Amino acid sequence: MATANLTELLDREGIRYITIQHSRAYTAQEIAAAAHVSGKEMAKTVVTKIDGKPALVVLPAGEKVDFDQIRANTGAHDVELATEQEFATLFPGCELGAMPPFGNLYGLDTYVTRSLADDDEIAFNAGTHTELIRMPYRDFERVVHPKSIDIRADAR
């Protein structure tokens, strides 16, 4: 079941969304295939540390994070991947690695690659490895207020 704080936020904001049940999957591309969602529309949430502070990086399932791009676009000196041990307690109510791209729910900055805005909809983990949420991208942007930057390896 999707995390209560996520669905409460979406309902309170009057956002139309659908939940999609799928077989247990762990990588964004596996989830996209299991849920029959385009890999371009399926957003993966990556937990990073930007100058030592945890932050969410959101990009399409098939793309890779370019840490040099994040440094260049944020002015940070140090950008690295957070370990599961470092972020295990940051997302209450979520299965490890299944956090939604809503940094605002967890007190974290959210950076999203500009290419996700090209689609009308975004799909993402709903806090479990068996459910995702699909909603209009413009509503995601309105509620999360992500910082839109180029954060994918092929953005150069």
What does this structure look like?
The chain is α/β, with parallel strands linked by helices and 156 residues long. It has a single domain, classed as Alpha-Beta Complex (YbaK protein). Helices cover 24% and strands 27% of the residues. A five-stranded mixed beta sheet has the order 4-2-3-5-8. The chain has a three-stranded antiparallel beta sheet with strand order 1-7-6. The protein is globular, with a radius of gyration of 14 Å. The N and C termini lie far apart (38 Å).
Looking at CATH, which topology would you report? YbaK protein
Number of strands: 8
> Main β-sheet, in a few words?
5 strands, mixed
Mean pLDDT: 90
Give the amount of beta strand, in percent.
Answer: 25-35%
Shape: globular
Structural class: alpha/beta
Number of helices: 5
Helix content: 10-25%
**What is the CATH C-level name?**
Alpha Beta
Enumerate the strands of the largest sheet in spatial order, edge to edge or round the barrel.
Answer: 4-2-3-5-8
**CATH level-4 homologous superfamily:** YbaK/aminoacyl-tRNA synthetase-associated domain
Order of helices and strands: HEHEEHEHEEEHE
Q: What's the architecture in CATH terms?
A: Alpha-Beta Complex
Model regions low in confidence, pLDDT < 50 over at least 5 residues: none
- Domain count: the total is 1
> Terminal Cα separation, in Å?
38 Å
What integer value in Å does the Rg equal? Answer: 14 Å
